[in-house]
Amino acid sequence: MSVAGALLLALTLPITIANLATTPTRANIEAADPFVRLILAFGAGIWPIAILAAATGVYWLRGSKRLPKLVVTWTQPLAIAAAIGVVLPLLLRLIGGSNLPTFFSADQSARPGMPFGLAAVLLDETVVRMLVLPALLVFLRRRMTTTPATAAAVVLSGMVFALLHEVGPAAHVFHGDHFLLRFFLPGCALSAAAVLFGVPIALTGHLVAYVMLCLIFA
């Protein structure tokens, strides 16, 4: 998890710079990730997200003396995760055309602006993959055998991911297709990737896929 902690810290920096360099419009705010809008409702901008991610990154980095070697070891897997994050949106564009399919919500496009978009990825991965999923794995593996406990943790973390996007000021309208997409893809699928291949894989794939969606879809 030390590499994931380092990635969180590294991602906090561009989000902080983007937040300082740009002023979000009302349209950006209205299109932002519902989970991010819940944080924005407290009136402190996206700073709480950056602080939470930085604190979580520091926690997972604590006592790590092998980070440079680990980074070298993880270079190829992270490159593969990034490549998958590039290829899947390109395939979606090739099959579906220039408009983002309607089963994607507005926050998964360029409409929120890059600061809010990156903040959403950072918040999702910090809360779900760095906090909720590890806690579920520890809790359930003490009460079940490994395989059922792991499967349950993946499904429950996917449900948490989806439900977190149904709270706050943006949650007044429920879209079943958006909920199911969040549950299965960035929820369960990325949690499964985190368990099988490591949290850095899930974080990298999520980040690159989001940036690609912004770049290639109208």
Q: What is the topological layout?
A:
Elements: H1 2-21, H2 26-31, H3 34-40, H4 47-61, H5 67-96, H6 114-141, H7 146-164, H8 176-197, H9 199-216
Helix pairs in contact: 1-4, 1-6, 4-6, 5-9, 6-7, 6-9, 7-8, 8-9
Explain this structure.
It is a single chain. The model has no long low-confidence stretch (mean pLDDT 89). The chain has helices spanning 2-21, 26-31, 34-40, 47-61, 67-96, 114-141, 146-164, 176-197, 199-216. The chain is globular and about 45 Å long. The protein is mainly alpha-helical.
Q: Strand content of the residues, in percent?
A: under 5%
What characteristic shape results from the CA principal axes?
globular
What's the tally of helices?
9
Oligomeric state of the chains in view: single chain
pLDDT < 50 stretches: none
Quick one: how many beta strands?
A: 0
**What's the pLDDT, averaged over the residues?**
89
Q: What order do the helices and strands follow? A: HHHHHHHHH
Cα Rg? 17 Å
Major sheet: size, sense and barrel closure? none
The percent of residues in helical segments reads: over 70%
How widely separated are the two ends? 36 Å
Protein structure class: mainly alpha
